[in-house]
Amino acid sequence: MSLVSPSLLSADFAHLASDIEMINRSEADMLHLDIMDGVFVPNISFGFPVIESFKDICTKPLDVHLMIVEPDKFIENFAKIGATYINVHYEACTHLHRTIQKIKATGAKAAVTLNPHTPVCLLEDIVSDVDMVLLMSVNPGYGGQKFIENTLSKTRQLRELIERKNASALIEIDGGVNLETGRKLVECGADILVAGNFVFKSQDPIETIKSLKSL
Ligand code: DX5
Ligand code: ZN
């Protein structure tokens, strides 16, 4: 059994309320929100006014993935708007330990994200401080990209690191997740699967979420 965090990036933005209501009815464990600034990643997604518009109808915890430079500037805003998890990129944080403490001070859960090229060993001295590690299995910026196979070995390495440190961080994987890559990821030790296109572009998203959860 894995946890599932559908990525809203692949939803129909002209009918956001009905997609959120679908997520509410589904077995999704949380809702993944991709925040892009056009600087850290070559794309811009959505921000506070959009989250504000649906936060009261969404019954699932919000799993916020910040693909932005200087994430410290906005941690309090995301906590106030109701984020349960706040994910910051390792590559965007010069003082990651300070940023993680800042997230925790708001009461939100702290998570660190690694780009595909960033090795797991760099987490050695921070993994015990975070509630979640998010491994990118595509280069961040767009939904619907192809899964990078090297993520499987990174997932195994991360599981080993968490066990060796006796840490409790959950392992989340983001990008190109479907039933095939999801099954392999769970075998390698993943706890949470993010899925955008695979859920929202499917015939029956509720069933798709259910099948991902059963992996
Ligand atoms: C990519 C985002 C992902 C994206 C995943 O930058 O972080 O969350 O929405 O989309 P799929 O599952 O379609 O690869
Ligand atoms: Zn994401």
Give the key terms.
8 helices, binds D-xylitol-5-phosphate, 215 residues, 8-stranded parallel sheet, 33% helix, alpha/beta, 20% strand, binds zinc ion
Which ligands, by name, code or SMILES, are bound? D-xylitol-5-phosphate, zinc ion
Main pleated sheet: 8 strands, parallel
Rg measurement, Å: 16 Å
Q: What is the strand arrangement across the widest sheet?
A: 1-8-7-6-5-4-3-2
Question: Treating each run of at least 4 consecutive H or I residues as one helix, how many helices?
Answer: 8
Low-confidence stretches: none
- Mean pLDDT equals 98
SSE-based structural type: alpha/beta
Number of β-strand runs = 8
3D shape: globular
β-strand amount: 15-25%
Helix fraction, binned, reads 25-40%
N→C terminal distance: 5 Å
Sequence of secondary-structure elements = EHEHEHEHEEHEHEHH
Report what the structure shows:
The mean pLDDT is 98. The protein has an 8-stranded parallel beta sheet. The longest helix is centred in the last third of the chain and has 15 residues. It has 215 residues and is an alpha/beta fold. The protein contains 8 helices and 8 strands; from the N terminus they run βαβαβαβαββαβαβαα. The site of zinc ion (ZN) has 6 residues, from β2. Zinc ion (ZN) binds next to β2.
